[in-house]
Amino acid sequence: MSVALLSVAGVALDALLGEPERRHPLVAFGRFASRLEQRFNAGGRGWRSHGVTAWFLAVVPLTLLATLLSWLPYIGWLVEILALYCALGLRSLGEHVMPVADALRRGDLEEARRRVGFLVSRETRELDETAVARAATESVLENGSDAVFAALFWFVIAGAPGVVLYRLSNTLDAMWGYRNERFERFGWAAARIDDVLNYVPARLVALTYAVLGKTRLALRCWRRQAPQWDSPNAGPVMASGAGALGVELGGAAVYHGELHERAQLGEGPAADADAIERGWQLVCRGIWLWLLVLCLGAAFYA
Length: 302
Fold this sequence. Notes:
Belongs to the CobD/CbiB family. It is a multi-pass membrane protein. The protein is mainly alpha-helical. It has one domain. 72% of the residues lie in helices and 3% in strands. The chain contains 11 helices and 4 strands, in the order ααααααααααββββα. Strands 1-4 form a two-stranded antiparallel ribbon.
């Protein structure tokens, strides 16, 4: 029961406060990770062994610290709640995606492009309204999995150490896990570890999206389209999410000046501002469903 109550408290704190405006722990961690990358991957010449070493130095000491703090008498429960709160990004996700939908509804394409540029790594300067909506909808589905559901999953599995391990690993994948000349070798470990940590949560998220949306279509898209996606975890999440919403996502996109022909995801009309909002609502309903199942399971077990 304590895990369920701590989970509810962490999610509630995120909903109430959002991300800390100043001195967010992940911002400080990002600066530390950048210094490690400069040390172990200078000029993009780091090997896989250097990436493993850098990952270990970045993640393991802080995970051990979280373990020790969570064991402290009287305040260990507070450490657990704060760890989950710092790892979650539910309110922040909404604060980033909804302005894109609002700008599209106003017909302000330039503002929509600017806003969606905060969410995605693809080039946004020449996107039309449909492409902007598609990018934002994809982002809310995928980031909902990474920044919300997976963090809660690892908190339930292993408490503060689990959520810290996951969130730091996911951050390193976002920083180092690129398939380019600079990071292909050095970032290999960060990318593979993140894939492993997200494997089970991603499939639970895909199932959640399917249950809360157009279930048959979501399951069909998951089965048929997910294997065509590059990422083993983003594929199920985004294919199921697109099917649950009944919209078409995926397709060609430009990353760092290079055109990538991506598979189509979902079925139905092209994404629009309403699809962005419905995607955001799908993530919100999903997190409440998870909390409900967790509380009911804890009560039954007790």
